[in-house]
Design brief:
By secondary structure, the chain is of the alpha/beta class. It has one domain: NAD(P)-binding Rossmann-like Domain (Rossmann fold, 3-Layer(aba) Sandwich). The chain is built from 7 helices and 8 strands. It has an 8-stranded mixed β-sheet, sandwiched between helices. Helix 1 links the parallel strand 1 and strand 2. Helix 1 packs across helix 7, helix 3 packs parallel to helix 4 and helix 4 runs parallel beside helix 6. The protein is globular and about 50 Å long.
């Protein structure tokens, strides 16, 4: 059985990713800050719940320790937890980067010992093409006209962290993903967006690679994206 942890999985894309991986036979741990919401989501899915706040070191350590005690390893880690805040200030920047970028470091560092025990360890970071220089400077791309100062910058950091982790850990696949503009609570103020179910398929593809799967890439549903 493939053991998978998804952060921020009590709703939206994370929830749908959990559902699809469960359908593929994974043992899925739903990571969520809020215990009540996380337990409810896990019960709805038939998954397992672990309290996990990516901005809190003690919470992250305890979550991975619980998975270690129960499973002895981790095969797939999906960094899905994220925030979007259009306000720009020092405190807001700290909060956004702490969740979207530093949280990737916290959870990855705690998970590495468990991932190294897996025969096929895989890490997927839910990033964004809004953090790609190529996309945001390309007039033919929607990101060109989308100002998102802190979100885009934090996702650029998350993508680079993913690449650097891939370089530092050649035995583990690390990839970042642009899941597509999705209708979730985080994007409620924006018009449009597709179903989380459709976006989750992009994540699931990278979370279930073959032995020759990619590493150190940023991808969307069509394949690898320029940075």
């Amino acid at each position: 059985m493939t053991v998978t942890l998804i952060t921020g999985a009590n709703k939206g894309i994370g929830f749908e990713t959990a559902r699809q991986l469960l359908d593929l036979g994974h043992v899925v741990y739903v990571g969520a800050r809020d215990v009540e919401r996380g337990e409810r989501a896990a019960a709805t899915l038939g998954a397992r719940f672990v309290q996990l706040d990516v901005t809190d070191d003690a919470s992250v350590t305890a979550a991975l320790a619980a998975i270690d005690a129960a499973e002895g390893r981790l095969d797939v880690l999906v960094h899905n937890a994220g925030v979007l805040d259009e306000a720009v200030s020092g405190p807001t920047a700290l909060r956004v980067f702490d969740t979207n970028a530093v949280g990737v470091v916290r959870v990855t560092e705690a998970a590495l010992p468990l991932l190294r025990r897996s025969p096929n360890p895989t890490v997927v970071t839910v990033s964004s093409s809004a953090g790609s220089f190529w996309a945001t400077t390309n007039p033919d791309r929607p990101e060109y006209g989308m100002p998102a100062l802190l979100y885009a910058s934090s996702k650029a950091a998350a993508t680079m962290l993913t690449l650097q982790y891939a370089k530092a850990n050649p035995g583990i696949r690390f990839n970042a993903v642009e899941p597509g503009f999705t209708d979730t609570d985080m994007t409620a103020a924006m018009a449009g967006g597709r179903s989380p179910r459709d976006s989750a398929r992009v994540i699931v593809r990278l979370a279930t690679p073959g032995a020759d799967g990619p590493t150190g890439t940023l991808q969307d549903e069509h394949g690898e994206l320029p940075w």
